[in-house]
Amino acid sequence: MGLKKMNDGGTLKKVIFTCDQLINDMEASLREIEKNGNILQCFEEMMGRYEQLEILAVTIGGHKQKGNIKARLTRVKRELQDAKTAVELEKYGNAEEMLEHHLIPALQRFREGLLST
What we know:
Distance between the termini: 9 Å
Number of strands: 0
CATH class: Mainly Alpha
Order of helices and strands: HHHHH
Number of domains: 1
CATH topology: Four Helix Bundle (Hemerythrin (Met), subunit A)
Mean pLDDT: 88
Structural class: mainly alpha
Shape: elongated
Low-confidence stretches: 4-8
């Protein structure tokens, strides 16, 4: 049974919407890095959005799917925390690289995986 059939109550749509919001937050953070804006606040907001995504995402799918979702999101969380630490240490280039080359693509793949089930 696919994720869509198991979640016709809209949970899957909420997960995808929250994932989209997190991707948008990350893209906004890249712009803030470029213009030396309030980057740390962006990362704090992203951590909050990530928590929303994690809470919602682990409610979809079967047992095996939940394990896969949890594992993928745990990697995203770890990299997001590393990027936040880089910002705190004022290593903006490192944070930018992590967002651009790791976090945003990982979330896009996660989102596409949800859509294809």
